[in-house]
Amino acid sequence: MRMRFLAPVVLSAVLLAACGGGSDSKTTETEKKEASSEAPVDNSMVDTKAAEAAASKGAGLIEQKDCKTCHKVDTKLVGPGYKEVAQKYEATDANIEMLADKIISGGSGHWGEVAMTPHADLSKDDAKEMVKYILSLK
Ligand code: HEC
Q1: Which of 24, 77, 95, 114 could form a disulfide with 89 if both were Cys (CB 3.0 to 4.6 A apart)?
Q2: How confident is the model over 104-122, as pLDDT tens digits?
Q3: Are 105 and 118 in contact (CB under 8 A)?
Q4: What residue segments make up the domains of the chain, in order of their start?
Q5: Quick one: CATH architecture of 47-138?
Q6: Residue 115 Cα, ligand 1 centroid: separation in angstroms?
């Protein structure tokens, strides 16, 4: 009894899979083409690569510190989201300098009453790398 019920179901499932399988392989083919046409463009952008390397150094430093307990990239947590920070400040030397100092010595008043804790163990250079990464997240 059960088999009679199941047979049409199994059959249509097989047919659906066959049709679906056909269109699936088409999409993956076009996806592959798109991906491979982008690859050479990336390789030619040497300057972008250097900038990305610098940015990822800052990202790595942020990863090692306690920053993520208070900051996220997209949304406000205890402190502002990094994208908000990037929109507020231009990536000028003066701003990078000022924000690096703020990360090291902590402080409040730019975004609200809540203060950022000081990070006295951070070197100025590392703090600057972090700021460069944050300001690259526009
Ligand atoms: C205890 C929570 C906390 C931690 C940990 C923390 N922050 Fe913050 N951060 C804040 C708050 C709150 C503000 C907003 C301060 C203000 O209103 O001026 C802020 C502001 C900032 C700003 C913008 C400063 C400005 O003057 O506009 C930057 C950049 C920043 N944080 C980076 C970092 C980095 C990098 C780390 C890790 C080394 C870090 N924060 C760790 C809470 C934190």
Answers
A1: 95
A2: 999 999 999 999 999 999 9
A3: yes
A4: 1-44, 47-138
A5: Orthogonal Bundle (1.10)
A6: 8
Using the CB atoms, write b or e for 121-135: b if 16+ within 10 Å. ebeeebbbbbbbbbb
Centre of ligand 1 to C-alpha 19, Å, is 54
Distance 51 CA to ligand 1 centre (A): 23
119 assigned to a ligand binding site: no
Number of CB atoms found within 10 A of residue 50's CB: 10
Check if 109 has its Cβ closer than 6 Å to any atom of ligand 1. yes
13-45 pLDDT, tens digit per residue, is 554 455 444 445 455 554 554 544 454 555 455
Q: Is 19 within any annotated ligand binding site? A: no
